[in-house]
Amino acid sequence: MAGIGLVVIGDEILSGKRQDRHLANLARLLKPRGLTLNWVRFIGDDPEILRHQLSQTLASGDQVFCCGGIGATPDDRTRQCAAQAMGLPLEVHEEGRGILEELFGEQAYPNRIKMVEFPLGAQLIPNGFNGVPGFYLQQHYFMPGFPQMAELMMGWVLANPLADLSGRHTIERAIRLIDASEAEWIDWMVELETAYPNARIFSLPHFDQQRRRSIEMGVEAGPEIVEKVMSLLKQEANRRNQAWEVITERVDT
After folding, report:
1. What does the pLDDT average to over 243-249?
2. What pLDDT does 249 receive?
3. How far apart are CA 83 and CA 46, in angstroms?
4. Please, which pLDDT band fits residue 208 given cuts at 50, 70 and 90?
5. Nearest-CA neighbor of 153 among 3, 1, 2, 6?
6. Cys bridge to 135: 57, 118, 202, 235, which one at CB 3.0-4.6 A?
7. The model's pTM
8. What is the CATH number of domain 171-246?
9. What's the CA gap between 162 and 236, in Å, rounded?
10. Strand order from edge to edge, sheet including 244-252
11. Which CATH number is associated with domain 4-159?
12. What pLDDT does 1 receive?
């Protein structure tokens, strides 16, 4: 199955003026379908870099959500760069023209109309927030940088052009190993991954305010494998006289 990618576009993200929310929103929308993000790219508004990056993602064969840079101001360059990367001309989308004329009347011209200049052959993504559409073409889905708008549009994409896209439903469980060292568990984790290649074994170290260390260790997989792996993990912790506590119950992913 092709991967799923996210491209977040805007100098304001790279400068730290705004914090990205698209990653968390898209990951949350993908979970009920058994899907996960395979990669994320953060790109500024430089047109040369943007064209180059979009050329790469277009060649990947992945389903790619692109957020940002589709407005009408001079620093909004995503529409133009997408068209160039696809080797297509920009044209005013006629259905999009009708939407903007209904929304803005004569005020749609001469500038707002630029928001529906899309690569030839693009289809519209409805915008349930303010009505100004995004577009999709060649497995790339372009939407505004505003998270409130983009989240609604991501949901529409998943329910419509990507309605048949689904993955493997899994659950995740973990325990906290108290005052433990990751280095002492590496060999055991490698053996476990070898025995259960379809499971994702994870280890996340933590330090509390008193700098006491602990490890969140667990597994993500199908229910039967999760039960087996968690049983083995608890048995191994007990064998080592390692203190532990449950921190995560079943979570559908």
Report:
1. 81
2. 52
3. 15
4. confident
5. 6
6. 118
7. 0.86
8. 3.30.70
9. 43
10. 200-207, 213-221, 171-178, 244-252
11. 3.40.980.10
12. 63
Residue 83 contacts residue 119 (beta carbons within 8 Å): yes
Average pLDDT for 181-205 = 95
Provide DSSP, 160-197: TTTTT------EEEEEEEET--GGGGHHHHHHHHHH-T
Amino acid identity for residue 70 in this structure:
I
The tokens for 35 are 């899907």
CB count in 10 Å sphere of residue 231: 10
Cα(35)–Cα(158) distance, rounded to whole angstroms?
11
Query: Where exactly are the structural domains of the chain?
Result: 4-159, 171-246
Residue 116 Ramachandran class (φ > 0 left, ψ -120 to 50 alpha, else beta): alpha
Decide if pLDDT at 247 tops 90: no
